[in-house]
Design brief:
It is a single chain. This protein folds into two domains: 10-146, Dipeptide-binding Protein, Domain 1 (Dipeptide-binding Protein, domain 1, Alpha-Beta Complex), CATH 3.90.76; 236-459, Dipeptide-binding Protein, Domain 3 (Dipeptide-binding Protein, domain 3, Roll), CATH 3.10.105. It has 15 helices and 21 strands. The protein has helices spanning 16-25, 73-84, 121-124, 132-135, 192-201, 211-216, 221-226, 252-261, 264-270, 301-310, 340-355, 367-375, 396-399, 417-426, 432-449; strands at residues 30-32, 38-40, 43-49, 54-59, 99-104, 109-114, 155-161, 165-170, 183-187, 206-208, 227-229, 232-233, 236-242, 276-278, 323-324, 327-328, 330-336, 359-365, 382-388, 452-460, 462-465. The strands form six sheets. Strands 12, 13, 14, 17, 18, 19 and 20 form a seven-stranded mixed beta sheet that branches. It has a four-stranded antiparallel beta sheet with strand order 3-4-6-5, with helices on one face. β17, α11 and β18 (359-365) form a beta-alpha-beta unit. α8 packs antiparallel against α10 (301-310) and α14 runs antiparallel to α15.
């Protein structure tokens, strides 16, 4: 893993690494299968009634927390109450607050009611259940269980040395059957090149390759014998985000101009070696919610200069840099250390913006400080970062103005009344065709306003030791059946 794991209580974590680990420690009523379809998980069954306003769940009665206590509807009720409590420091409360009433109807049964149909009602129940008997009365910001969690998933935490490594051990009592792998050992290596050297030396079994590593550095017969490689368009996009509190970026003409001055094709070819596609908005190309009618602005530096001049930016003193009211157009792009794709993208952006008279400095920051001290506190001019693309098109948590607050996911402080209204309406609709119209317009607004320059959607390029069996590529990727990966005994390097 590149980034540190920060917190193993899922509602409190905003980094992908923490959520990846937590997904193996906790369980949820529902989960996505290999075809990205919701199915029962901790729930034995569920019903959707009254046009989606009423949901009934029956939990399995054979699920136990790793301390031996049964998982029951009381835990689900506790999780719900925790998520809607305004004192809970979470960025994920919005879905839960749509629930009008939670009703526990038995030890293993519960019902929820909504005032209106809510498109993400089932998605809400794909979020992790927390243990009441462990966390009740705890200060979530200062509890040992953020580092020593009690879960009910396929794995449990065995060891965690922050910033260095983390080990999960198989949960022998996991209700779907014990995982085939005894232990999973995660190493925190905040540099992809160092990860690759460790992979080559046998210190890692799997990692995500860079395009250069995939295309040119793993082609030999030795690599082909020792590893299997996979390639599929990822559910994620990389972007250049502007801090809209900064006076330079409040004018959308400026943001559009910056988009026109950046050659996304150059980034895809130069950074991704063609293993990706330019991004236009927040959805994955080829999915139903993607708006095919929105066309990229393309690389048009002359048009960029015209827009900037309209916004008051010109080179008035002949020094080669644009200025306005005596201030040169200089700003800093920050990103996290260890991600060469982001830093290389920043260098290309820096060069292209210099071509039109804008000076950019680049600063790479260690991951945990990057998130806690800069992103969460809004201490940046612009940043390069990525978002996962979720299966449901709802974007409320990232783009609604209610989340433009410290610790919120709308950390660029973007606010648009029409977008806010659409995001609220979109989550109240169930019909796909009606939702499609909403989110098509959402993409149009984001394209017009350019709060982000949506840079690219990369390919996922995982590589896994050829000793590992049971991998089944699917629309959801390769990790959907991770607990059923296995290694033949004769190929095990650490046989007990």
């Amino acid at each position: 893993m590149l980034g540190r794991v920060t917190n193993l209580i899922p509602p409190l974590a905003t980094d992908a690494g923490s959520h990846a680990i937590a997904s193996y420690i906790y369980v949820s009523p529902l989960k996505y299968d290999k075809n990205i379809t919701l199915k029962p998980y901790a729930a034995k069954s569920y019903q959707v009634l009254d046009g989606g306003r009423h949901l009934k769940f029956t939990l399995r009665d054979d699920i136990y927390w790793t301390d031996g206590e049964p998982l029951t509807a009381e835990d689900v009720e506790f999780t719900y109450e925790l998520m809607v409590d305004p004192e809970t420091p979470t960025a994920y409360a919005a879905d839960w607050k749509q629930i009008r009433e939670f009703r526990r109807t038995g030890k293993y049964t519960f019902e929820v009611f909504y005032d209106k149909p809510f498109a993400r009602s089932l998605v809400t129940w794909a979020q992790e259940i927390l243990p009441e008997h462990v966390l009740e009365g705890e200060d979530l910001l200062d509890t040992e269980y953020s580092k020593n969690p009690v879960g009910a998933g396929p794995y449990k935490l065995k060891e965690w040395v922050p910033g260095r490594h983390l080990t999960l051990a198989a949960n022998n009592d996991y209700f779907e059957g014990r995982p085939y792998m005894d232990e999973i050992h995660y190493r925190i290596i905040p540099d992809i090149s160092t990860q690759f050297l460790e992979l080559k030396a046998g210190g890692l079994d799997t990692m995500g390759l860079t395009p250069l590593q995939y295309l040119r550095q793993t082609q030999s017969k030795d690599w082909q014998q020792r590893f299997n490689k996979f390639k599929y368009l990822s559910f994620g996009y990389t972007y250049l985000g502007f801090n809209l509190r900064h006076p330079f970026f409040k004018d959308r003409r400026v943001r559009r101009a910056l988009s026109l001055a950046i050659d996304k094709e150059e980034i895809v070819k130069g950074v991704l070696f063609g293993l990706g596609t330019p991004a236009i908005g927040p959805y994955k190309p080829g999915t139903w919610q993607y708006n095919e009618a929105v066309e990229d602005y393309g690389y048009q530096p002359e048009e960029a200069l015209k827009l900037l001049e309209k916004a008051g930016w010109k080179d008035r003193d002949g020094d080669g840099w644009l200025d306005r009211e005596g201030k040169p157009f200089w700003f800093t792009i920050i990103t996290n250390q260890g991600n060469s794709q982001r830093t290389k993208s920043a260098v290309i952006i820096q060069r292209r913006l210099a071509d039109i008279g804008i000076k950019v400095e680049i600063r790479a920051i260690e991951w945990s400080s990057f998130i806690s001290e800069f992103v969460n506190k809004g201490r940046f001019d612009a940043l390069i970062l990525s978002w996962n693309i979720l299966q449901d098109p709802d974007l409320y948590n990232v783009w609604h103005s209610d989340n433009a607050k410290p610790g919120g996911l709308n950390f660029i402080n973007y606010k648009n009344e029409e977008l806010d209204e659409l995001l609220v309406r979109g989550r109240q609709l169930v019909n796909r065709e009606e939702r499609k119209k909403i989110y098509d317009r959402v993409q149009e607004i984001l394209h017009e306003d350019q709060p982000y320059v949506f840079l690219y959607v990369p390919y996922s390029l995982p590589i896994v030791s050829s000793r590992v069996r049971g991998i089944e590529p699917a629309p959801a990727g390769i990790s959907h059946n991770f607990i059923r990966w296995w290694i033949p005994e004769k190929l095990q390097l650490r046989a007990q």
